[in-house]
Write a structure and sequence with these properties.
The complex is a heterodimer of chains A (315) and B (276). Chain A is mostly helical and 315 residues long. Chain A has 15 helices and no strands. The chains are: A mainly alpha (315), B mainly alpha (276).
Chain lengths: 315, 276
């Protein structure tokens, strides 16, 4: 079967599994799961409809299918507190989270790759070691603490950037700087390390020796000859790291007052607003699955050997 | 003694990070002996005092000694980090090695479950689980472990599959070893170095995740001191009384940093193929 079709089909069991886990979590909630889904102030008619769709008196397996049907219709329930529809709340906040994640991704990709190349080129030197220790430090910092410190330094002391909130248009970019760098720092550190390893690996190959022997400068060798081949593991990590952006956005958005699904989830947690929490968990997992899918498909394009290998082995 | 000194000279980072971890563990175990004050004792006469000779790290808004609270916080963090790692190692070992060894439909099933748990953003899943469980040491450990076992399972499975066709396993089988014995005495020792590296780094990851959970109010509940909750509680005082936030954060960063460096150095020593 075609690699791409197969990879897309593989997401189906994963999505089913995710819905199963959230279903089990929903069952484990204190109180009536239907009430939990609909909200305390729900209209009795709505309760009745959900109850009918889920069929609470039916066996658990059938209830699961009812739940699945609700999910397919995009029904995530209503918030206990505001009684607003979780789906439309998420739809409104998701673009903000995506914007923040994209900005963090740009930040971490640019700095991570540059630092990684720097370390590989100056391998073994003092600067390489220092950067290696710093990048380990970057992975070790708690995101929420880093965010608070950045706010303190850049907003209170230097008064350069706004501490929290969001703007619109180009003026809004100022608001993006601190949250995006907070969110992107640990990924940048991880990327720097993988870029370094990958670059060192490529630099030890014979064609690089040839290029050097031709008398090319280090700059040309690194950026023209080695760079593209370095990218393959790096691109995978950029994609895989998306999960860490989702994790980090929960904390970053809370600190910077960013109106995305991360902060929405935290508000849900503080108010024990279960439909909100479950909606955010489902959305996050769905996003993560979609991003992993995209990365795998892209990976096939970047490195054609991957897409063709399974097909060959089958024929 | 001479050998030990030579070892230290050649592996300064390994020894330094090992020393930090040992000191942290000692501080956690002997917390009541080290902490000069009761971490829960409220003293409204000494509120928001800066770091000084009486209160090494200052006091918080209720006059509690921050140093004592950080020391007691090490208890929680290390206890959760280590026990969650141990527990997820065991689950990962059972699932991954059995799946890889037995193969077939059983393996496919285990792999699917593993992939499923890896498909969730980890903190999000940990949050979902800890919202349901009554907050406490056990539920945080359980939530982290449910999130973390899958990566160990994947590691054990990959290693078991690559090892089980090797001739030493065949020899063991020819000698009449039971499957259990082959797994425990022949496969497991080969997996250990790589798994130990992953586990060391995982401890750091779990401590970070625990601090994030307690920052969000989902960890051990106040007044018990945890690093994450201390930061969360006093975050608004950062401009005026920064020590309340800076010291707990440094404690988290230092601990996680030590575990990460230790893991990296272990990798360099035990597994030269993976050298960064």
């Amino acid at each position: 079967m075609n690699f791409y079709v197969k990879r897309i089909l593989m997401t189906v069991p994963t999505l089913l599994g995710i819905s199963m886990i959230t279903f089990v979590l929903l069952q484990a909630l204190p109180g009536d799961p239907v009430q939990g889904l609909a909200g305390d102030r729900a209209d009795p008619a709505v309760l009745e409809r959900i109850r009918r769709d889920m069929g609470t008196e039916r066996p658990v397996v059938l209830q699961y299918f009812g739940y699945l049907k609700l999910l397919m219709q995009g029904e995530l329930g209503r918030s206990h507190y505001t009684n607003s529809c979780v789906r439309s709340d998420i739809a409104r906040k998701l673009p903000n989270t995506m914007l923040l994640a994209a900005a963090a991704m740009v930040f971490s990709t640019v700095f991570g790759i540059l630092l990684g190349i720097f370390m590989a080129v100056f391998r073994g030197s003092f600067w390489d070691r220092l950067a290696l220790v710093l990048s380990t430090g970057g992975i070790s910092l708690p995101v929420f603490w880093l965010g608070l410190l950045l706010i303190y330094v850049f907003s209170f002391k230097l008064q350069l950037l706004p501490p929290a909130g969001m703007g619109s248009g180009f003026g809004g970019l100022v608001f993006l700087v601190l949250p995006a760098s907070t969110l992107g720092l640990s990924s940048a550190a991880a990327l720097a390390r993988i870029t370094r390893t990958s670059m060192l690996d490529v630099l030890s190959q014979p064609y690089i020796t040839t290029a050097r022997a031709k008398g090319l400068s280090t700059r040309v060798v690194v950026f023209k000859h080695a760079f593209k081949n370095t990218l393959i593991p790096v691109v995978t990590l950029i994609g895989l790291d998306f999960g860490s952006y989702l994790n980090g956005s929960i904390l970053t958005e809370t600190i910077f007052g960013w109106d995305g699904i991360g902060r929405y989830a935290v508000e849900g947690i503080f108010q024990r607003d279960y439909p909100v929490i479950m909606g955010c968990v489902l959305t996050g997992a769905l996003l993560f699955v979609l991003v992993n899918l995209t990365v795998d498909l892209l990976y096939g394009l970047l490195d054609p050997r991957i897409a063709y290998a399974p097909a060959e082995s089958q024929s | 003694m001479k050998q030990a000194l030579a070892f230290m000279r050649h592996n300064p980072a390994l020894c330094a990070s090992g020393l930090v971890i040992t000191l942290l563990a000692a501080a956690a175990v002997c917390a009541p002996l080290i902490a000069p004050f009761d971490p829960l004792a409220i003293n409204l006469d000494s509120v928001k005092q800066g770091p000084g000779s009486t209160h090494l790290f200052g006091t918080d808004t209720l006059g509690r000694d921050i140093f004592s609270r950080v020391v007691f916080g090490a208890r929680t963090s290390l206890a959760i980090g280590l026990s969650a790692t141990a527990l997820s190692l065991v689950i990962g070992l059972l699932a991954g090695m059995l799946g890889g060894y037995v193969g077939g439909a059983f393996d496919t099933c285990i792999t699917m479950i593993t992939d499923l748990f890896l498909a969730f953003p980890s903190l999000l899943l940990a949050i979902a689980i800890s919202v349901l469980l009554p907050p406490g040491l056990l539920s945080v450990t359980l939530a982290l472990c449910l999130v973390g076992w899958a990566s160990f399972a994947r590691l054990f499975r990959a290693m078991t599959i690559s090892l089980k066709e090797r001739s030493f396993v065949e020899a063991a089988r020819a000698m009449g070893c039971s499957h259990l014995r082959i797994m425990a005495r022949h496969l497991l020792p080969h997996c250990l170095p790589v798994v130990m590296i992953a586990a060391t780094i995982k401890v750091g990851g779990f401590i970070l995740a625990e601090s994030a959970l307690s920052f969000l109010g989902l960890g051990i509940q106040p007044p018990e001191p945890t690093w994450g909750a201390m930061i969360s509680l006093h975050r608004n005082y950062l401009p005026s009384a920064g020590w309340m936030v800076v010291f707990p954060g440094c404690a988290i960063a230092l601990t996680v940093f030590a575990f990460n460096i230790f893991g990296d150095c272990l990798r360099d020593r035990l597994d030269p193929n993976l050298r960064v």
